[in-house]
Each structure stands twice: as C-alpha cells, then as structure tokens.
Write a structure and sequence with these properties.
The chain has five domains: 85 residues, no CATH class; 124 residues, M1 Pyruvate Kinase, Domain 3 (Beta Barrel); 90 residues, Elongation Factor Tu (Ef-tu), domain 3 (Beta Barrel); 101 residues, 3-Layer(aba) Sandwich (Rossmann fold); 82 residues, Beta-grasp domain (Ubiquitin-like (UB roll)), CATH 3.10.20.30. By secondary structure, it is of the alpha+beta class. It starts with a strand and ends with a strand. It has ten helices and 33 strands. Helix 8 crosses helix 9. One of its GO terms (molecular function) is pyridoxal phosphate binding. Keywords: 2Fe-2S, FAD, Flavoprotein, Iron, Iron-sulfur, Metal-binding, Oxidoreductase. This is 2Fe-2S iron-sulfur cluster binding domain-containing protein.
Length: 561
C-alpha cells in the first residue's frame, strides 16, 4: 500500500485542497481539515467549536453546486467566491463579517461562518478518512475518487481490501493510525468535484450492484508524525479496541452493517448440490450475536446475495449454499478463501414466546429451521420438510436435533392436509422455501384457523433495477406536512426538496445516511396522505412506510416522526 495524495477541506462541504504533506497529531486530523463551516441557522451549532452534526451546515447534498465555489486558504487567510463571482476576503479573526455575503449566496437560510475546535468531521471520532483508488475504479459508471472527499488516497491494494484494515493499526510515514470502521457513503459522492453535476446516484448504484453503501475507512491518529505522498502504508497488526471504539458515536452505523472480510475456515459438502461454508467473522466480538433465522450478505466477484445463517459457533458463522443462480454457482466454482460479509440481518427471527413451534420448509429452506430448533429450548417443535433428494442437505443434522422431524420426498407430498393436521391456532409458524410453496402453505394454515399474524416468512428480494435518476415532483404543492411524534408542522413546496430536507428545514434531526434511497436509515411510518419517490428506492419499504430522503408529498401527509 502507498499514500497517493493528501487532501484537506478547509470549509466543510466546499472544495478541497491537495497538500504536499501533513503534520499529524494524536486525536486530530489533517491540519485545517473541516476547520470552518457555514451554519445554515436551521439547527443549533455547539458552542466553543465543539463537534456538531453535518445537518447543521450548508453541505453538498442539499446544495449541489458547492464544489463550484472557490476556496483559497493558507492557514492564515481565507478567500471564498461563488461561481462566476469575485473572491471575497474573510478575516479569520472576524468570521461574523461574512454573514451578509453568505446570506446572498444561500438565500432562505440564516448563514454564519463558524470555526471548529477539532474539525467538523462527519463523525466526532473520524479524524482521517482513507479511500482506496482501486475500489473507486471498480465501481465504474464515471465515479470520481475526488467526489468521495477523502483525506488520504491509497494505491497499490486490491479493490475493497481496505475493509480488512478495520480494527488494525497502520503506519503512514512517521504517523500511526488505528482504523475504526468503514465509511457509509451519502449522495455527495454523486456530485462531480469540478462540474457540480450529478454523475450517477452512487449510493444507489453501490447498494444495487454491491449490496452495501460503504467505501473507504475512517481512522484516528494515535502516534503523530509527518506524512507525504509516496509514503508506504504498513499494516502493523491488530489494534485492540479500535473496532469497538468505532461503534461508540451515537450516529455511527451499527457494526453488523460494516462490510468485512471473513476467512473461510472450512467447507463441508452437505449433498450433491449444497456446500456449507464456515466463516470466521472478524467483528464477532463487536456486532450483535445472530438471532435464529437471520442471514448474512455475501459480497463477492462484483455480486451479492443473502444466505441464511444455518449455524453459529463462537466467532464462526455457517452458510449452506445450494448451486442455484449466478452467485451460488460462483461460490461453488471458485472456492474462495475469503468473502466480504455484512450482517446479521433479518426480521424472521424466533420469537420469545412459549407457544408450540411449527416449522415448515422445502429444499434449502431448511437452513433457518436448524438454529430455530437449537434456540427453542423446552418449546414443543414440529418440523415438516420437503425435499427431492434421497439424502437432502442438513437433514441428518435436523433429525439429530429433533428425532420426530418428518421428511417428505417431494414438495407435492407435503400437502395442505398434512400441514393443516399439524397446525394449532396457538402455534408460532415459520415458513421457508420457494415462493409458491410458502404461498400454498400459508393458505392451508389460514384455512386451518391459524391467524395470519402467527405465520412468519421471509423472501430475499432482489434490488430494483432502477437507474437511480431523480425525477421532478409530480405535484408542486403546497401541502401540509405534520411530523406527528415531534409535533412539528411544515408547509411543503417543490423548492423545499425531499421530505427529509423539509424536516431538517423545520429544525428536526431525523435519522438519515445515504440521502439516495439506498440504506433505509430514514424510513418512517406514513399514517396519512400520499407520497411519491423522486428516486426509486433500491429496496422499497413495506406498506405505510416511506423513505424520507427521496420522497415528496402528493397530498397533505402525516408522518410518525
């Protein structure tokens, strides 16, 4: 690995500057990086330069043209210019004097220039951000490394391999850093750094093609020193506690979402078509323990797919992969030694009740049933499984766990009458298998007086094949928007932007991350009215739920937020 370039961004959200070297100090970032910011007046800024969330500042997402503003900063003097305008000298000892000029540049705000004590980074602990240029190149679609606004740009390492640095210490020049976590990307990465135009919806592209929205890593300086382009980047080994520290900021993404390389410690052929992979998870002590029924995502060869966790032991997770589809075939054919994973995810988890369990599966759908049987404790459990093979994958393990489990040699032999006979209205029922199989089983159970609310199933859906391009609002407004939980009411017009933009303009700080319909962080319940998406979400939320970052009202609406 090698340090290819060093950048700082003197005014948060505005253009960056390449610098020939940087003197790093413990606990701090690149000197004068995110040193200043333009507060828009809609949210409070902490006193005395203390760290403040990016939502309080003018930034690239809502203000797409910020890269076109000129910035000239040498540590002692600041000059700023709007596109096509003359430079304005701003005395660093009188930041308030810039207010009138900023108000003209950003109408509708109450802007003022503020100074950070230690950098207005996106996270309070994220002193230095690192980008692997090979990863950006692998994204394609015209993605520009400078759109990712990193401090350090790295070369001479494989695409996505930077994720393996999380929880480790590295030496760069005369400094040493501990890598805390991967970087979740937002819509800023979609904006070209010199034209200010949207290249492509990068977070949506990443979520759709790679199954996550992470690129690059955050680090903290633990040993100071000078760094320069051309310096080698040396992996010094594990940094105890670094990854755990990466979870501590309240706004940091949860560890189960972080992509990380898992070592394939063993492979077990379960049947002619199924191979189990045991994966050693480097974040096992940091992310939540998997619940029975949850899954991980595997990201490999430019593709991704979800696989149920069929067993978990210590820091190892097992997935059982049937040769079916491109990704599964790739795993069977290439036998990789390492796989990038995220998770555990999934809401089809074993409940905490004491009622009887009825587990109904077909084929590879047996995978979530095994951890559920293990976690069932003293609950009565019935397993009905359909398979075509004479020795189906994982069946011997199921019989060992539950000797009374019943196998049906063809899906058509596990019929509605058999399921109905095993059903009890008080049972908790879990289904897993092909979509048609689950539909037939659900109909049979409901016909047997099992309440639909007692039946759980999960379908792994593919991301929508949308372009990620934004469309104009279908209605100009005005519409009344009530954020019911907060008691805040606002009027939306087309110029307000998305519902998330409107919430922030009204002084609310709601959960958000990518601002591009890719991560689900901003999902809220819509309890009244109707909305439309300006960007198709990568995975649409369920009924009565809406992604605020890419939606607008088409009537008066009530949002439970």
């Amino acid at each position: 690995m090698r340090l290819d370039g060093i950048y700082r961004y003197p005014v948060k959200g505005f253009a960056g500057q390449e610098v020939p070297e940087a003197a790093l100090l413990p606990g701090r970032g690149v000197p004068f990086d995110r040193h200043l910011a333009v507060a828009h007046g809609g949210q409070d800024v902490a006193e005395d330069g203390a760290w403040t969330t990016c939502h309080a500042f003018v930034r690239t997402g809502p203000y797409q043209g910020l890269p076109l503003f000129g910035i000239d900063f040498d540590g002692a003097a600041l000059s700023m210019s709007r596109p096509g305008g003359a430079p304005v000298e701003i005395p660093l000892d009188d930041l308030a004097g810039a207010g009138a000029e900023l108000a003209e540049w950003f109408p509708g705000t109450r802007p003022r220039l503020v100074r950070a004590g230690n950098g207005y980074w996106d996270y309070s602990d994220a002193g230095v951000s690192l980008i692997n240029k090979a990863t950006i190149a692998s994204l394609g679609h015209g993605a520009d490394p400078l759109s990712f606004r990193a401090n350090f740009y790295l070369s001479d390492l494989a695409p996505w391999s930077e994720f393996g640095l999380v929880g480790r210490r590295v030496r760069v020049g005369g400094a040493e850093l501990e890598v805390l976590r991967p970087i979740d990307r937002c819509s800023t990465t979609s904006i070209h750094p010199t034209t200010g135009e949207e290249i492509t919806n990068v977070p949506a592209l990443m979520a759709r093609e790679h199954g996550h929205i992470y690129c690059g890593v955050y680090a903290r300086v633990v040993v100071g020193g000078r760094v320069s382009p051309g310096d080698p980047v040396v992996d010094l080994g594990p940094a105890p506690g670094a990854a755990l520290a990466g979870t501590e900021p309240s706004n940091a993404p949860p560890a189960q979402q972080w992509p990380r390389p898992a070592r394939v410690v063993r492979r077990v052929r379960e049947s002619t078509s199924v191979i189990s992979y045991w994966l050693r998870d480097p974040l096992a002590g940091v992310r939540p323990e998997p619940l029975a029924g949850q899954h991980v995502r595997i990201h490999h060869g430019g593709r991704w797919r979800a696989y149920t966790i069929s067993a978990a032991e210590g820091d190892e997770l097992r997935i059982s992969v049937k040769r079916d589809g491109v990704m599964s075939g790739l795993l069977h054919d290439t036998a990789p030694d390492e796989l990038i994973i995220t998770g555990p995810f999934g809401s089809m988890c074993l409940d905490s009740e004491t009622s009887p369990l009825l587990l109904v599966s077909a084929g590879i759908g047996i995978t979530p049933m095994l951890p559920m049987i293990r976690a069932a404790g003293d609950r009565p459990v019935t397993l009905l499984h359909a398979a075509r093979e004479e020795s189906p994958a994982l069946w011997a393990e199921a019989k060992e766990l539950l000797p009374e489990a019943r196998l049906f040699r063809s899906p058509h032999r596990l019929d509605a009458e058999t399921v109905a006979a095993a059903a009890d209205p008080s049972s908790s029922v879990y289904l897993c298998g092909p979509v048609g199989f689950m539909r037939a089983m659900r109909e049979a159970l409901v016909a047997s007086r099992v309440p639909d609310s007692r039946i759980r199933q999960e379908v792994f859906v593919s991301p929508l094949a949308s372009s990620g391009e934004r469309t104009p609002p279908p209605e100009p407004g005005p519409f009344r928007v009530l954020f019911a939980d907060s008691g805040v009411e606002a009027q939306w017009k087309a110029e307000c932007g998305s519902l998330l933009d409107l919430a922030e303009q009204a002084g609310l700080s709601l959960p958000s991350s990518c601002r591009a319909g890719a991560c689900d962080t901003c999902v809220q319940r819509l309890s009244g009215g109707s909305t439309a998406y300006l960007t198709d979400p990568v995975l649409a939320p369920g009924n009565d739920r809406v992604l605020l970052c890419c939606s607008v009202p088409t009537s008066d609406v009530i949002i439970d937020a």
